[in-house]
Every structure is written in C-alpha cells, then in structure tokens.
Amino acid sequence: MTAFQTTHAFSGFSVDDIDAARTFYAETLGLDVTTNAMGFLDIRLAPGGSILVYAKPNHTPASFTILNFPVDDVDAAVDDLNDRGVVTKIYTDPDFGTDDKGIARGGGRGPDIAWFTDPAGNVLSVLSAAPPA
C-alpha cells in the first residue's frame, strides 16, 4: 500500500478577512460553510468535495480563477448573481470579449463564462456545464 493517498483531498485559498469571506460564501453564494477549530472556513461542495479558506494578513488575490461553478444557463446564473449584488463584469479588456453582462461567449471555441470576485479579490466563475449546441 502506498503512503500517498488521494482520499479526502481538498483545495484551499487565502482571504484577507475571514468574516467577509464567510458572509460572501455562505450568505451571498449560498454554499455550505462551517468554521473549524482553527477559525478557518470549510466550504462543502456536492458531492463531497471541500475547500479550506484561511485568513492571511498579507493576502494577495490569486491571479487566476480559483473556483469554477458549472451551470446549465450562464445568463440565468449571471442574472441571479447580479440580483445578489455580485458584479460579474470585472474585465473590460476586449481580449476577454465579455458582453454587457460580463459573459465571454465561447462561440464554439469554449464555454460561455463570466467571472466575479470574492471580497478578498479572488476570481471565481460561472461557466456552461455543457458545450454550446
């Protein structure tokens, strides 16, 4: 038997304000968030994945997308996020090709995707769960 195991593997990222992160992930996004004994956040994802979120005083937002949410309808998901106060139009660079809603249309080159940030500036996304027809 190998000592290295992948059972119960999890991802993690830092934030600068654990309370703001708890509010955003639990209340704004509606994820299952608990606080562990060390004061870190445990975000439970279906069907059993998890993410550890920890406070870091000198936090620098990730320069890449840290968490992707596949959805059946990107437009509806963006509308829902916008209704919750989440800004999805975070890129104005024409290379990303986002529309007025902040959605980069895949056009057969990839999925439709919209990016947004958490309170710590980390980038998240909603993207098409299935390739466009």
Automatic annotation (TrEMBL):
<dbReference type="Pfam" id="PF00903">
    <property type="entry name" value="Glyoxalase"/>
</dbReference>
<dbReference type="InterPro" id="IPR029068">
    <property type="entry name" value="Glyas_Bleomycin-R_OHBP_Dase"/>
</dbReference>
<dbReference type="InterPro" id="IPR004360">
    <property type="entry name" value="Glyas_Fos-R_dOase_dom"/>
</dbReference>
<protein>
    <submittedName>
        <fullName>Glyoxalase-like domain protein</fullName>
    </submittedName>
</protein>
<feature type="domain" description="VOC">
    <location>
        <begin position="5"/>
        <end position="129"/>
    </location>
</feature>
<dbReference type="InterPro" id="IPR037523">
    <property type="entry name" value="VOC_core"/>
</dbReference>
